[in-house]
C-alpha cells in the first residue's frame, strides 16, 4: 500500500515531539526569519550595485535606492502585503495599477518630467518602463564622469519630486500644482549640485 511504503521511509527517534521551523537553521521560530522569508517572496532582488551620488542628500540617495528595489509603499505593494485599499490605481493618472515602474516611468506625469530633464541636459529621452531600462540607457550616455554623476543626481531629485507630488495628491485636500514640478527640480538640483562643483556646474550646463 502506498501509505505503508511512505511510513516505512520515516525514521522515528525516542524524543519528545516539538515544533520545527524550516525557515531557521536551528529549527527555532523567529520573527526575523519569518520577515526575511516574506520579503524574499514579495520583494524583487537586484544584482546591480548600490548607486550613491555625492552632493545629493542622504535621504534622497536612500529613497532612490529603495525605489529601484521596489521597496516603496506603492498601492500595489501595500495590497500585496495585505493592506486593504479601495483601488490599486495610480493616484495621479488613475489609469493603471500603481507600482514603482509606473510611478517613475510609465505615468504620463513622470514621462513629461523626465522628458524635460533630457531636453534640459541635451540628451535623448527614451520611453523607459523600468529602472533597469533607464540604467541601461544611462550607462550608454557619453559624458564626462563628473557631469554624468551630476545628471544622475538630477534624476534622483526628479524621482523624489514625483513621489512627493504623488503623496500630496493622496493626502492633501487641494490637488498640488503639477506645472511647478520641473521648476522645483531645477532649483533644488541647482542648489545641491552647484555646491559639488561650482565651476563645472556653470561651464557645462549653465543651469540657472
TrEMBL record:
Keywords: Nucleotidyltransferase, RNA-directed DNA polymerase, Transferase. It comes from the Eukaryota. Transmembrane segments: none annotated. InterPro entries: RVT-Znf (IPR026960). Residues 47-112 form the Reverse transcriptase zinc-binding domain. Pfam families: zf-RVT. GO terms for molecular function: RNA-directed DNA polymerase activity. This is RNA-directed DNA polymerase, eukaryota. It comes from Tanacetum cinerariifolium. The lineage of its organism: Eukaryota, Viridiplantae, Streptophyta, Embryophyta, Tracheophyta.
Amino acid at each position: 500500500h502506498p501509505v505503508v511504503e511512505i511510513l516505512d521511509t520515516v525514521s522515528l527517534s525516542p524524543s519528545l515531539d516539538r515544533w520545527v521551523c524550516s525557515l531557521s537553521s536551528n529549527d527555532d521560530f523567529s520573527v526575523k526569519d519569518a520577515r526575511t522569508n516574506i520579503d524574499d517572496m514579495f520583494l524583487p532582488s537586484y544584482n546591480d550595485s548600490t548607486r550613491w551620488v555625492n552632493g545629493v542628500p542622504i535621504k534622497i540617495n536612500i529613497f532612490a535606492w529603495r525605489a529601484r528595489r521596489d521597496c516603496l509603499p506603492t498601492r500595489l505593494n501595500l495590497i500585496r502585503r495585505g493592506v486593504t485599499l479601495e483601488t490599486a490605481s495610480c493616484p495621479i493618472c488613475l489609469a493603471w495599477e500603481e507600482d514603482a515602474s509606473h510611478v517613475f516611468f510609465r505615468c504620463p506625469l513622470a514621462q513629461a518630467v523626465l522628458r524635460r530633464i533630457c531636453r534640459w541636459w541635451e540628451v535623448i529621452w527614451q520611453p523607459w518602463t523600468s529602472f533597469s531600462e533607464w540604467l541601461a540607457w544611462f550607462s550608454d550616455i557619453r559624458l564626462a564622469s563628473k557631469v554624468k554623476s551630476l545628471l544622475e543626481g538630477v534624476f534622483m531629485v526628479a524621482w523624489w519630486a514625483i513621489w512627493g507630488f504623488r503623496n500630496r495628491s493622496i493626502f492633501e485636500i487641494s490637488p498640488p500644482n503639477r506645472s511647478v514640478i520641473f521648476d522645483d527640480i531645477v532649483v533644488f538640483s541647482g542648489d545641491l549640485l552647484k555646491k559639488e562643483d561650482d565651476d563645472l556646474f556653470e561651464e557645462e550646463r549653465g543651469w540657472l
